[in-house]
Prior knowledge:
This protein is mostly helical.
Amino acid sequence: xxxxxxxxxxxxxxxxxxxxxxxxxxxxxxxxxxxxxxxxxxxxxxxxxxxxxxxxxxxxxxxxxxxxxxxxxxxxxxxxxxxxxxxxxxxxxxxxxxxxxxxxxxxxxxxxxxxxxxxxxxxxxxxxxxxxxxxxxxxxxxxxxxxxxxxxxxxxxxxxxxxxxxxxxxxxxxxxxxxxxxxxxxxxxxxxxxxxxxxxxxxxxxxxxxxxxxxxxxxxxxxxxxxxxxxxxxxxxxxxxxxxxxxxxxxxxxxxxxxxxxx
Length: 263
């Protein structure tokens, strides 16, 4: 078999392995999925009227805040799902299976590729589920064209790929799964200090650069513009640049960490 055929075969095998693990141990994925759903319901039904009045400067209208909130929650869902990837990679590293794989005649990067592809698929599934809950409670995107829907989906997949590679790197350098979970917490914490819940202009002046110059804010504003027709401006290019840069950083970091001989 050619090198490409071996790589595809071994990567497919590792992907099946990770999907089987996710099916047999659904509690981790379920817990990560419940967080954005609970936040969605909390912010819509508890804070929705107040937040919409504060953002719009007019009367309370919960439906307006649902439309504002959902794009940020979808990207936050991706960040939360990739925490499970960091934990899964760390478990493989600490439980000895990676050491076993190193002794086998397999395509070595296929171990990481299986984790990455499996995680991206999980991200897509969880985003669809959270989106379904959002639609059930009133979210609508009637003005988006088919091309804008495809662009939004492509952005979500690309962002999921970027965060997954970062999470894989975090899992590889963590001494245990608990440390991996803690190391990956910024992936779910950063959306809280972005434009996911309130506009950047509504934040204190000293805090606005922190919220603006991070990967989640341009991605959220781009997704919001694609789904709701708001102004995207330079955020589209920034979201693409952040996604590609994080993908490259995570890939080379993970590759270097995985290739390093165990101590």
